[in-house]
Sequence to fold (351 residues):
Amino acid sequence: MIMPDVRQRVMLAPYTTLKVGGPAEYFAIAKSEEEMAALAGFARERGLEFTVIGGGSNILVSDDGIQGLVVKNEIKGVSSEVDGERVFLKAGSGEIWDDVVAHSVEAGWWGLENLSAIPGTVGATPVQNVGAYGIEVGEVIASVRVLDITTGEISEIPATDCRFGYRDSVFKNEAGRDLIILSVTYVLSRMPAPRLHYRDLEARFAEHGPVQVSVSKVRAVVMDIRSGKFPDWKNIGTAGSFFKNPIVSVSDHERLVDIYPGLPAYTDGEGRMKLSLGWILDHVCALRGYREGNVGLYERQALVLVNRGGATASEIKNFSKKIREKVFEKTDIEIEMEVRMLGFDESNSKK
Ligand code: EPU
Fold:
């Protein structure tokens, strides 16, 4: 059995892009499926909570840290298999997501290019069904290989059983509570399949008139749009969008558009409307760039919360509560966090 070092009281802040959070009671790094399985066994035998982190780019860790064993996933490996016009690209869950996107774009394969420059690892993509610029990763996932930490069994879950929703999947819910993602297989296209309907992308391609759209061009444009809106997480503490865009009934949407004309909204495909919370925070609540102490909403994208340096998790939590209240005051809508909270009472680490 390959057993990595397990250390005690390791500070987690450096392992998160928000740069906050207290210690893990126990901490280890898993570099292979075997190591992940051995660590799951270690936690099981001792009755410890088991929490896996990837790039730490979508989590808020409490100041008290996380009880039990926290494992940083560094399971690597990328392989591909061509099947006619399709390519099945399999990546270890600890691979850096954007390296995998870059690799697929260099090979000329279509499917991941709109999801360029998103921080984090492969394993996080199915968990929260990462989405950007008109695509959600669940649309290009073929299957997910998982370890059940209660039994130690490994199995392959087809995408149709992953219950992908808006920033949601089986892995975020009770049914997937004991499943650890080991690798993800994406199904890509060798034939051009541009997806340019998202407003910002459409506008950028329209500026240049009819151009030959290549997969690398789409990646370049997405990276350029993102760099104008998102802070560089290597220099500024952030976890991307801090809240989800609220999904409301058609009548709530109509009520709000009456009061706030211009509010961008999209159908969610299921008879409800997804509203742009960034726009609401900016144009309705005037909170773009708003700051309290060490925490603020980014000047160029109000949905992005930033740690201006030295913020604590409780400061961020209180700040986000205030933002929720301000949005509710103006819109009567209750917003939800997009970032996953770990080590708080209401958070859900693996058993
Ligand atoms: N807007 C403003 N002011 C702002 C922010 C946004 O007016 O301060 C307006 C924009 O002009 C636009 C609309 O609101 O009309 C939507 O903004 P944007 O296109 O930037 O996207 P978003 O809805 O704010 C979502 C995802 C992002 C993803 C982008 C691009 C969520 C929670 N966020 O943001 O995902 O990158 O679309 O597709 O769904 C993440 O999940 O962490 C994330 C960054």
About this structure: The two ends are 22 Å apart (CA to CA). The CA atoms of residues 15 and 171 lie 21 Å apart. The first strand starts at residue 7 and ends at 11. Residues 132-133, 198, 200, 229, 240-241, 244-245, 264, 276, 278-279, 282-283, 288, 301-303, 338 surround EPU (CB under 6 Å).
